[in-house]
Amino acid sequence: MVGPIHTLGPFTIPWLRGPRLVRVYAPPRPAGAPPPPVLYMFDGQNIFDDEPSFAGGWHLHRAVFGLAERGLQAPVIVGIDHGGAARVRELSPFQARSRGQAAHLVRWIAGELAPRIQRRFGVRSDPAGVAIGGSSMGGLAALYAHFHRPEVFGAALCMSPSLWYARGKIHRWIDGRPRPRTSRIYVDVGHREGTAMLPGAARMVERLRRRGYGDHELLWIADPEGEHAEHHWRRRAPAAVEFIFRPR
Fold it and tell me: pTM for the full model?
């Protein structure tokens, strides 16, 4: 049995508009097992079931349950709801059409939400056991969070990340950041996502390769059939989560 999804909140996040829910799935684990890893995901409405999502959920709880059944690392999944009309602004690290507020959101996750999840669900707190992820603007925010707070988030799961946003400033910003001591990154994009997506993601991957990321630290998937849509991220998610938490 897959088990329940717990709903926490609503929470008020400083500097961000409107309260939001946090949805948590904790896969079953044997008594006496060590603390599980944890994956924080942006756009929590889309992570689990279809009902609260915009265009169908990822069913990530089923993917994680499948990992547990195979005896693989099965993380607790924490989905943080986005702020509706304010979504782009709060997931952007940089000023573009509006002021970027990702720093506020990441600060709240690291300083307020993560300790709460550690206390209630007994998850790991070391960077190797804590990842952050998302798709589109959430993928951009996840990559930013990993390099911005590497002492908290030791991995980033970036599906179809909007690396073009703010004229591609994330590329230059990461060039100016030290490589995190603990770092694993998953990046994917579909060939059918428009002209800006694939070249931008490939360019980021090349930059990371030049900084010494090998196949153990970086997985790059260019999906020939991929579109910018929830059901494509759902299809690729199980392999992405498995890679992020593969034993180091």
Answer: 0.96
